[in-house]
Amino acid sequence: MDLHKSLTLGIAKQACLCSRLIAIFKKYILCGLFAAGLTAFTGCDDLFRDTPVDKMSEKDIWKNPMLLDEYVLPWYRNMNSGFSTYVPTTIALVKSASRYYMPWFGDQIVPSKNDYYNAGYGDLLKSNTKEITNWAQVQWSNYYTQIQSVNRLFVNQGEIAEGSQKQRILGEAHFFRAYYYYMLWRQFGGVMLIQEPLDPLNDSRKYPRASYEEMVRAIVDDARAAATVLPLEYDATDEGRITQGAALMLVAKTFQWASSDVFQNQEKTYLGFSDDRSHDMLDSARVAYETLMGLQYYDLIQIAGTDEESIKQEYRNIFLTKNSKESILEVQHSDDGNYDTGFGHKLDRDAAAPHFTGTTAAYTPTQNHVDEYGMRTGFTYDAQHPYVGRDYRFYANILYDGSTYNGHVMDIHYTREGNNEIPGEDLTAYGTSTTAAVTRTGYYMGKFVNEKQQINNDEAYASSQNYIIWRYAEVLLDYAEVMFRLGNTEAARTQVNAIRRRAHMDELPSLTWEQLVNERRVELAFEETSYWDIFRWGIAEEKLNGTSNPLKAMKIVKRGETTTYSISNMNRFPQRVRVFQKMQYYLPIPWDEIRYHGIDQNPDWVEV
Predict the structure, then answer these.
(1) DSSP string for residues in 463-499
(2) I want to staple 177 with a disulfide (CB 3.0 to 4.6 A). Which of 150, 248, 302, 458 is the partner?
(3) Going by C-beta distance under 8 Å and a sequence separation of 6 or more, which residues neighbour residue 244?
(4) How do 562-569 and 552-559 pair as beta strands?
(5) 294 Cβ contact partners less than 8 Å away, ≥ 6 residues apart
(6) Residue 202 binned pLDDT confidence (cut-offs 50, 70, 90)
(7) 502-519, pLDDT tens digit by residue?
(8) In this model, does residue 13 exceed pLDDT 60?
């Protein structure tokens, strides 16, 4: 079932409360979409045994502990699709309902399946304004739908019985209202701050666009309110719920985002501050990160091994361990990996090389990213042996020609025989499908994937890895960036070196901005935050355009005892594949909202 099909209307077009609640129950409860830890409250039969869904009243929800917990589930389910991607390649009408892995739009990892480029993904990549507008409307509606649900609960909180459940649910409500406004703010700038249920069919109120100052205050106030009542941890049955640490991280991330130079001295206050507030925001971020670190609850997962192989395996296991001591917030995917009726996903299948029957090649690292891995002490880069002596994290994150994965030596090179170049097994499409894909970059992904995951013809049962939204390594790197920008380079270096020590890399004797950025790009490789970094640093026009930053691939050809390594642009005309216009720093607000509320559209967007 497509989770976004019912979320394509703006808040000005939403239906009455009753129909919304019925839709929520049908879509999210009856379909059993949430992971085991958050669906252990009741079975579907028990839930509706006494009260038919079409006769359910509001009081049934607020007075019933089981219904209350079910009411909260969509807040979790819609915060991020995680690894549950959806890229329809044959039905044009549902392009805008696609669920993308956002790093695909960066320069570290790309899908290699040609069909994706003919789908909505390709349209967004080429800056197709119509498709961007449609996709933006889906995101907008999804976020505001959850905000409306939160606001409805706040209005009825007096009907909820006092006790620990009420405290926890109100904490979750504060967090998710802050979180969804944070998501809107990142993508659309200042939006309408609506903190009560809105029924435009019976309510003529209009809302202005909030300023950056107002957005920061609203998000931080709600996140702090959540942090005061939510626990640091839960027992096993509630594992994965929002914690005090997640709420504090949202406070810190909000101040860090607001501190970016691109949001200072703006003419329109819904696009940034009218003056330069960067130092104030940085100092507030510093305090927030120090508060989070001061909990002394989270920590880096240390690596005991000292050789290349053991470091590689232990580092990979960090991302296969659900809800570890390093985790702050994760999308809870189903433990059984069920993709049809649960909330599993197909990461391992979609990332697999042909040897493992892979036909999608949706997660192929670029040479641009491979070049970001430095050398270990004692090694000098050798173009004829480019994979020797690299940062240990390279071997964990990247499957390259000659590396071993699940007992298979990756065969990602061509063999020259006369005038012919014979592709290796992992460059030869598996099966008979004419759309089967192989890597276009010369690499496959090692990070996140599970060597033990069985890949067979039964697609119902797939992968179960959680999708990490925030982890403690990001806290340290965020704090390092904040301290560096505040002028305390030594404090920044301390945090960067803690990350490097964990990976058994030598400590840096000094720290430049370029080194800090590179450490962030390596440690947070393929994680969504690396995509958003490009926006808050104001370098999207440079990094997301094929003309200024063409994606690169490695081609390896062996002839006898001679091996040739050639790096080239992936496309002959990269500007036709990757286009980013300045106006894309902010997505277009749905035009129905512009007309209904009488607000300004984001710069340079016109109705299509």
Answers:
(1) B-PPEEEEEHHHHHHHHHHHHHHTT-HHHHHHHHHHH
(2) 150
(3) 226, 227, 230, 231, 232, 295
(4) antiparallel
(5) none
(6) confident
(7) 999 999 999 999 999 999
(8) no
Among the residue ranges 394-408, 452-466, 527-541, the one predicted with the least confidence is 452-466
Give CA angle at 17 (12, 23), nearest 5°.
95
- Which of residues 33 and 549 earns the better pLDDT score? 549
Q: How many CB atoms lie within 10 A of CB 86?
A: 15
Question: Does the pLDDT of residue 454 top 80, yes or no?
Answer: yes
* Tokens (6 digits) for 42: 């009741």
The HSE-up count of residue 69 (CA atoms within 13 Å, CB side) is 17
Q: Could you give the CA distance from residue 286 to residue 242 in angstroms, rounded to a whole number?
A: 22
pLDDT at 50: 38
In the block, tokens 């003529």 appear at: 204
Share of the chain above pLDDT 70, in %: 89
Q: Give me 373's structure tokens.
A: 């891995």
The one-letter amino acid at 352:
A
What is the C-alpha to C-alpha distance for residues 294 and 399, in angstroms, rounded to an integer? 37
d(CA 454, CA 461): 9
User: What is the mean pLDDT of the segment spanning 408-420?
Assistant: 97
Give CA angle at 170 (169, 175), nearest 5°. 95
- The C-alpha atoms of residue 143 and residue 375 are separated, in whole angstroms, by 43
Burial of 274 (0-12, 13-18, 19+ CB in 10 A): middle
* Cα radius of gyration (the chain): 24
CB-based burial label for 294 (10 Å; 0-12, 13-18, 19+):
exposed
363, 549, 550, 569 from 573: Cα distances, Å: 22, 12, 9, 9
